[in-house]
């Protein structure tokens, strides 16, 4: 079998795997405002009673983000979620996001109880990077530093030298490149290509993608730019390179929000999950935000700028989890200890960088 047909087969198998998962994602009923209010009140009471804190990702429903804000919790990107969960003094962390975020919280805070509204909320990147295949891939390249994206299982993290999120990936790879290191990157190929392109680092890439960002199409974006010639394009680096080539700002969720606030332009076309619009509009109320098109010649939108797994976080599920202590995330202690090493490396690196930036100011 040639290398490219082996790669095609792997991609087809990954796509099938993701489709099977998606077929099981339940359809979310329309929210009933009265019922939602009841859940909100009950969750607030339970958060207090259990000394619990709600930590939500920017892609979750606006009602969940608003609840995290109102109750003194946190709404953020995946890096800040990890930090906040570790540093806050709650006994219980309620993590609204996808499974790897709950696992990361559990690894970093072994003495806290970590609950999730649903443990079925996974991620196409996590699914497409199973530990057995990944470990074999690493074994074939013992001369490379293994850098994995946070959107992976605890077992994949435990096999890595570094864990990174999108807000710090570029800095970490630059740092490793300065040391003359060769890199094995997994699992997101678009983010990997982007970093490789920006740094010129010697990287080999695992071949997986985010089903949400994969759907953004350059052709549709070009048409939209023609319609809004003054708009700036903000894109998450999980988007395809043809889309990134047209972006004015490429960054993690929090970096894109910052750009919408700080740039002088009035209109932004945003290529990431639509959940981000809640916070972006809150921080930049006078700006016009438009979701980047997923339509194009070869589009078959399975997600339409909306992560199906993030969408599984509902108020009802959160209430039930808090009430019953169900959907608890517990990473095996030995595995957690091993996954902690590359995670801690990322957090230490990010802290050092922040101090360095502050020092320069
Ligand atoms: P951030 O690290 O930018 O929050 O992204 C997480 C994610 O899942 C993007 O799809
Ligand atoms: Fe994973 Fe993509 Fe969903 Fe982020 S948006 S959690 S990368 S499937």
Automatic annotation (TrEMBL):
<keyword id="KW-0004">4Fe-4S</keyword>
<dbReference type="GO" id="GO:0046872">
    <property type="term" value="F:metal ion binding"/>
</dbReference>
<dbReference type="InterPro" id="IPR036094">
    <property type="entry name" value="NadA_sf"/>
</dbReference>
<keyword id="KW-0411">Iron-sulfur</keyword>
<comment type="pathway">
    <text>Cofactor biosynthesis; NAD(+) biosynthesis; quinolinate from iminoaspartate: step 1/1.</text>
</comment>
<dbReference type="GO" id="GO:0008987">
    <property type="term" value="F:quinolinate synthetase A activity"/>
</dbReference>
<keyword id="KW-0963">Cytoplasm</keyword>
<keyword id="KW-0662">Pyridine nucleotide biosynthesis</keyword>
<dbReference type="GO" id="GO:0051539">
    <property type="term" value="F:4 iron, 4 sulfur cluster binding"/>
</dbReference>
<dbReference type="GO" id="GO:0005829">
    <property type="term" value="C:cytosol"/>
</dbReference>
<dbReference type="Pfam" id="PF02445">
    <property type="entry name" value="NadA"/>
</dbReference>
<protein>
    <recommendedName>
        <fullName>quinolinate synthase</fullName>
        <ecNumber>2.5.1.72</ecNumber>
    </recommendedName>
</protein>
<dbReference type="GO" id="GO:0034628">
    <property type="term" value="P:'de novo' NAD+ biosynthetic process from L-aspartate"/>
</dbReference>
<dbReference type="InterPro" id="IPR003473">
    <property type="entry name" value="NadA"/>
</dbReference>
<keyword id="KW-0808">Transferase</keyword>
<keyword id="KW-0479">Metal-binding</keyword>
<keyword id="KW-0408">Iron</keyword>
């Amino acid at each position: 079998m040639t290398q490219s047909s082996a790669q095609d087969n792997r991609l087809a198998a990954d796509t099938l795997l993701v489709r099977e998962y998606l077929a099981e994602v339940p359809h979310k009923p329309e929210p009933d405002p009265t019922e939602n209010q009841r859940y909100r009140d009950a969750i607030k009471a339970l958060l207090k009673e259990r000394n619990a804190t709600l930590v939500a990702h920017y892609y979750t429903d606006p009602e969940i983000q608003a609840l995290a804000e109102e109750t003194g919790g946190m709404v953020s990107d995946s890096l800040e979620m990890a930090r906040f969960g570790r540093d806050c003094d709650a006994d219980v962390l309620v993590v609204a996001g996808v499974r790897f975020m709950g696992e990361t919280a559990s690894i970093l805070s072994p003495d806290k109880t970590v609950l999730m509204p649903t443990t079925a909320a996974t991620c196409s990147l996590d699914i497409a990077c199973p530990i057995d295949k990944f470990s074999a891939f690493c074994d074939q390249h013992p001369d490379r530093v293994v850098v994995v994206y946070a959107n992976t299982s605890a077992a994949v993290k435990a096999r890595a030298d570094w864990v990174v999120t999108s807000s710090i990936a570029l800095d970490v790879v630059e740092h490793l490149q300065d040391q003359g290191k060769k890199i094995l990157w997994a699992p997101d190929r678009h983010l990997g290509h982007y970093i490789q392109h920006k740094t010129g680092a010697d990287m080999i890439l695992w071949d997986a993608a985010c089903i949400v960002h994969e759907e953004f199409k350059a052709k549709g974006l070009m048409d939209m730019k023609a319609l809004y010639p003054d708009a700036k394009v903000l894109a998450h680096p999980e988007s395809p390179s043809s889309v990134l080539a047209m972006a004015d700002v490429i960054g993690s969720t929090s970096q894109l929000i910052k750009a919408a606030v700080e740039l002088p332009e009035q209109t932004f076309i945003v290529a990431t999950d639509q959940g981000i619009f809640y916070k972006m509009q809150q921080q930049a109320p006078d700006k016009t935000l438009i979701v980047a098109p997923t339509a194009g010649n070869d589009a078959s939108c399975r997600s339409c700028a909306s992560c199906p797994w993030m969408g599984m976080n509902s108020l009802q599920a959160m209430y039930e989890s808090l009430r019953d202590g169900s959907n608890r995330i517990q990473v095996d202690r030995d595995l957690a200890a091993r996954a902690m090493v590359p995670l801690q490396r990322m957090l230490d690196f990010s802290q050092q960088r922040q101090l360095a930036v502050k020092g320069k100011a």
